[in-house]
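Support request, please re-run this one:
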Amino acid sequence: MSLNLQQRKTRRGWETVAGWKLRSVGAVLAVGVAMGLGVRAQAASNTNSVTVAGDEAPEGQSGPAAKHAFNIPAGPLTGVLDAFRQATGLRVHLRISADELVGFRSAGVVGTYTNEAALQQILDKTGLSYSLVSANVVEIALRNSERVDVTTSVASVELQQFTGPLVDTAQTVNVVPQFIMQEQAATNLRDTLRNVPGISLAAGEGGSQGDTLTIRGFNARNDIFLDGIRDFGSYYRDAFNFEAVEVLEGPAGVEFGRGSTGGVVNQESKQPELAKFAHANLQFGTNLMRRASADINQPLRGLGEGAAFRLNVVGSQSMVAGRNIAETRRFGIAPAVSFGLNTPTRYVLQYLHESENSTPDYGLPYFGPAVVNVDHSTYYGFAADNYLRTNPDIVTGKVEHDIGKGVTVRNVLRWANYPRDVRITEPQINTVATTSAVPMYTGGTPTPILATCAQNGADVTKSCFSLDTPLSQVRVKRNQLTARSTEDLLWDQASVTTHFEVFHIPNNLVAIAEGGRERSDPYRNSYNMPYVPVLSPNPYDPFIPTSAYPGIRSYVVATSYGLGFVDTVKLREWLQLSGGVRFDHFNTHSYAAANPLAATLTPAYDVNRLDEQPTYRAAVVVKPSHEGSIYFDYGTSFNPSAEALSLSANNATSPPEYNTTYEAGVKWEYFHDRLHISSSIFRTEKQNARETDPANSANTVNAGDYVVRGVQFGAIGHLPENFDLIVGYAYLDSFIESSALNASPFNAVNLALISANDPRANTAPFFISPKGMPIANTPKNSANFWVTHKLIRGFTGGLGANFLTARRASSSAYIGLYNSSAPIDLTQVRLVPKAIPGYYALNLMVSRKITRSVDFQANINNLTNKFYIDQPHPNHLVPGEGINAQFGFNYKF
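Re-run finished. Output below.
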C-alpha cells in the first residue's frame, strides 16, 4: 500500500511536496480504492470537499450508503485507511509509495456510518480530497501549485489527555505553532508566550530563577510541562526543540494533577519522522546576537520498520538591548530516536540538554512605589561575579501500542536533573519617613520602616532615604541572591486511550496512572555588600562582602501519585458530554540544616506534609455545525503548600488552596481548519488562599479568597498567500474577596513618626481592608497580534504588537502616605501600591526566498524603542529589551 506524497513540518506548518513538480493546478495524486460497488461521485474543483451520489443501502451491504460500525482510532493515514478496508471488507489499493505519506494523520472514525461518511471523516482535515473516477477507483487529489500547505490543524494538541479535536474541547486552549515562532524569531519560552492573552511574565523569586509567569492572575511557575509531564526545574527554556507551545487556561487538575489554578503551559518537543530533511538557521543581531541552530531528521531503514533519528542543536550568545553588562549564553542539544513509526507498536527515546552560563540582570530598584528615575541601562550588579548557571538533563522513554482498533496503551518514563548555581544582585533603595514632608511606611512587617532601615547600618542617612532626597545623594543596596541546588525527577506515566460504544453511543476515554519522586536540596547563603550611588554604580567593582552568612540548606523529597480519567460521550451528532475525576496523593518530607558548614548539623526544622485530594471536571458541548461548538465547563484544582517543593516550618500545617472555574465559550473553524476562532467568559475562585499572618509575619494562614473573572478572545490562522495570524485579547477583573487582613491594622503596622518626641507618635492602629484590591501581576487588559502576508517581488511582511495595561507588583505591597505637618487624620491616609505602568511594543518582520533552499529573514523588535517594565517583582523591576534587529538565513535541504 503506497502513496507518492511527502509531508513534513516546516516553519509554515505541515508542508506537502510531491516527488516531482506539480506543473498545473489540476495535477492529481491518486489512490485507487476498489470498493466492489457502484458509486457515482463528483469532486469539487480546487477544494478538499467531495460530493458522492448513490442509493440508500441497508446496513452491512455495499454501496456508498452502506452502513458499518466503525471503531478506528486516530493515527497515521495509511494505518487508518487499512483499518477502513478491514472494517468494510473492501480492497484498498494505493498506487504510489507509502513512505512519502509520512506525516499525514487522520482523526479516524468511531460510530455507525455509511462508507461514504466514514471515508469523509477519515480524510477530514488532512488537506486531501477524494473523488470516484470509476466504479472501483477513488482518487485522492491535491489541486494546487508546486508546493502545497496541508496544515492538518492550526490549533491541534498532541497531548494524550485530549481525545478529540480542539474545536470540541470545552476549555480555552491557545496553541503557538512552530511557524509562528519562526516568523517572530522567538528564541525562548517567554517570547513564545507573548502570543497568548491572559499571561503576564514576572521576574524570578529569590529562591528560584527561570521562567516565571501568571496565567489568568494566578502564579503558574510550577505549571510548566514538557510533553505532558511536569518540567519543574528553575531554568530559562530555549525554543530550539519546540514543535509547538500549548497553553490550557483554567484549572486542569483532572488532566495534570496539583497546581494549574489559572492553567498550564505544555512544551511539545520535536519528534523523529520518516521523511528525510535537514534545516539550519543562522542569526545575527544588533545586540551582538549570534545564534546557530540545526534540525536534522534521518530515516534509519536498516534498523527495522519505522526507525528514524532526529537531532536538534543550538548555540546562542547575546547581549540585552538597552541594558548594560547583561548577557545570555546558551547551548542545547536534543537527539531522539524512534522505532516502529506507523506500526502498532512505537518506541521513542529522547534526550534534552540545555546549558546556560549567563550574566543575569535583576534590573532597576523601586524608589518608593515606582521605578527609580535613572538611565535605563544602569546595571547594579557585578559583571565578573554575578552568574546564572543551569545544566538541565532530561531523558524520556515512551512506548505506545495499539490493541485492536480502538485501544492504545502508552507508558512514559522520565528522569530529569536540574543543577543550578546562581548569584544575582537585586538592587534595593530603602525609603524612610521624613518629618518635613511625606512620611512613608511599607507593609508586610510588624516593625516601622525606620527600625528596618537602622539594621542596615548605624548611619541611617547612608542606607535609608526619604522620597524628597535628591538622587545624587541616594545610595543603593546590592542585595545578593545566591542559590546552589539540584532538583531531580523520576516519573512514570501510564495511560490508556480507548474508543468504544455503549448502546450505540460512542465514548472516547483516557485513563492515566502516574507517579514518582521529586527532590530538591537548595543551599542559600548571603552577603552584605557596600552601598553604591544610585546614579553611578560601578559594575566592575570587586566582589568584597562586608560580611557573610552561611544560610540554610534544606533537603526536600516528595513522593506522589495520581489516578484519573476523562470520558467524552457523543449522545448525538450535535451533543457531547464529558466528565472526569482524579485522585492525587502528595507526600513531602523536608529537613533543613541551620548551619550546613558546621561539624555537627543542627536541624532548623524537620517536617512532613501529606495531602490527598480529588479534583473534578464536567462539560457539555453543543455543535450547531461540524465546524463549530458552544460549550460550558466546570473544573477544580488544588495547590498544596509543598507544591514547589518549598515545605518549611511556617507552612507545614497549611492545608491546600482550592480552585474552581466556570467557563462558557464558543469555538469555530473556517477554511478547512486553517482559521480557528474562540471566545470565552469565565470565573476562577481561589479559596483558602495562603497569606502572611498579620499577627506574626513568620507564619502562614489560609484565610484568603481571591477571584478573577473575565472574557477572552483568540484567533489563529494559516491561510494562502503567506497570510498567517495569531490574535488574542483578555480582560481580567481580579479582586480580593476576603483576606486575613480584613479586620487587622494595615499590614499590622502602627503609623508612627520618625521623631519619638512627637506627640503624634505611636498613634492607635490604622484599620483598612484589602477587600476589592486587585491581585498581583494581573493587568485588566492584555492583547497581542501578529499578521504576515505576501508582498511584492517575493517578499513576505509581518507586523505584530503586545499590549498590557497597568498591574500591581504585589497584592499587599502598599506605602502609606500622610501629611506630617498637621495632626494625623487617618481618613486622609493614602495607600500607594507598587504599580507597574502599562505598555505596548511593536515588532516587524520581512522575509524573502533567495533560492529553493535558502530564505532570508529580518526582524525588528520594539520598533519604537519603548521603555517598559517586562518582569515585575515586589522588590525589583526588570525592563524589557530596547529596539533590536535580527537578521537570519534559513537553510532547507
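Residues 61 and 157 are 37 Å apart (CA to CA). The radius of gyration is 30 Å.
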